[in-house]
């Protein structure tokens, strides 16, 4: 199975497992989030060990084996992106849809330079998975409120970046809070938003799969100063991110710098 298909299959299957846990466990809040994190990570680790035994894995929920720094292929996964949103349930076992599963693959080229080569983001509560294939994504609703006749910038509801208002002003856009990093990035992929900006408090697993997918769909992805996002580093802290329509990138970078 090609890597991009495997990434999508694993993200989808982990999402189905998480939906089952959410619906059937009777848990909620942090207990549900912890159970989902643990069981999804166990599943992804087992499948990757079976299907790609020679590859390294970097996961939010497992100890970091620095042997990955010398590996030619490293899977970067977030078993539940948006644990708080996942743990928010209603009486029917459903709840917030803005959480995700991330599965990405970093590969080292013949020149020794590494890059993201495949990725998938599952939105299990919506029953959809997006991957870094060539498929065009039609505008779709489901993560954010009904779109108004203004540009939209999605941001964290709990810790929007200090420059969010400046970006919104530069684009004449409204700010829309959405849950997990994957959900926010996919809101741009889905056409529900025009940009996603974040500053402070992310790691490689938060953005690797969303960036792989967004780049494959023709979107701009970078650090907030416009510099490239670099993965499989010793220090996995990768705190800031822009995902946007390419024609907006220059304005967003300038607004942040200002």
Q: Portion of residues in helices?
A: 25-40%
| Coarse morphology | globular
Largest sheet: 5 strands, mixed
What's the number of helices?
7
* Strand order in the largest sheet: 1-2-3-4-5
Structural class comes to: alpha/beta
The termini sit apart by: 46 Å
Fourth CATH level, the homologous superfamily of the largest domain: Fructose-1,6-Bisphosphatase, subunit A, domain 1
| Low-confidence runs of at least 5 consecutive residues | none
Molecular structure report:
- It is a single chain.
- The protein has 2 domains: 3-131, 2-Layer Sandwich (Fructose-1,6-Bisphosphatase, Chain A, domain 1), CATH 3.30.540.10; 151-257, 3-Layer(aba) Sandwich (D-Maltodextrin-Binding Protein, domain 2), CATH 3.40.190.80.
- The longest helix has 23 residues, at 29-51.
- Helix 1 (3-24) packs antiparallel against helix 2, helix 4 (164-171) packs across helix 7 (249-257) and helix 5 packs parallel to helix 6.
- It contains 7 helices and 10 strands.
- By secondary structure, it is of the alpha/beta class.
Outline the secondary-structure elements.
Layout: H1 3-24, H2 29-51, E1 56-59, E2 73-81, H3 83-86, E3 100-108, E4 114-123, E5 128-131, E6 151-156, H4 164-171, E7 173-178, H5 181-189, E8 195-199, H6 204-216, E9 220-222, E10 240-244, H7 249-257
Parallel strand pairs: 1-2, 6-7, 6-8
Antiparallel strand pairs: 2-3, 3-4, 4-5, 8-10, 9-10
């Amino acid at each position: 199975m090609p890597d991009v298909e495997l990434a999508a299959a694993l993200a989808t299957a982990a999402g189905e497992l998480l939906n089952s846990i959410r619906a059937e466990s009777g848990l909620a809040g942090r207990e549900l989030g912890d159970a989902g994190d643990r069981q999804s990570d166990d599943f992804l680790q087992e499948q990757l060990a079976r299907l790609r035994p020679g590859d390294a894995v970097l996961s939010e929920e497992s100890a970091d084996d620095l042997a990955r720094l010398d590996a030619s292929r490293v899977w970067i996964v977030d078993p539940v992106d948006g644990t708080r949103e996942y743990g928010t349930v209603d009486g029917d076992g459903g709840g917030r849809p803005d959480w995700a599963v991330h599965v990405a693959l970093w590969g080292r080229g013949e020149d020794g330079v590494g890059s993201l080569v495949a990725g998938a983001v599952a939105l299990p509560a919506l029953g959809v998975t997006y991957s870094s294939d060539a498929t065009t994504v039609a505008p779709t609703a489901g993560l954010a409120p009904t779109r108004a006749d203004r540009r939209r910038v999605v941001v964290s509801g709990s810790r929007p970046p200090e420059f969010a208002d400046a970006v919104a002003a530069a684009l004449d856009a409204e700010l829309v809070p959405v849950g997990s990093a994957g959900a926010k990035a996919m809101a741009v992929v889905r056409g529900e938003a025009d940009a996603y900006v974040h500053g402070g408090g992310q790691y490689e697993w938060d953005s690797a799969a969303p960036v792989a997918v967004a780049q494959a769909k023709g979107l701009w992805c970078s650090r907030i100063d416009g510099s490239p996002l670099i993965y499989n580093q010793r220090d996995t802290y990768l705190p800031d991110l822009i995902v946007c329509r390419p024609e907006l990138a220059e304005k967003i970078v300038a607004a942040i710098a200002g």
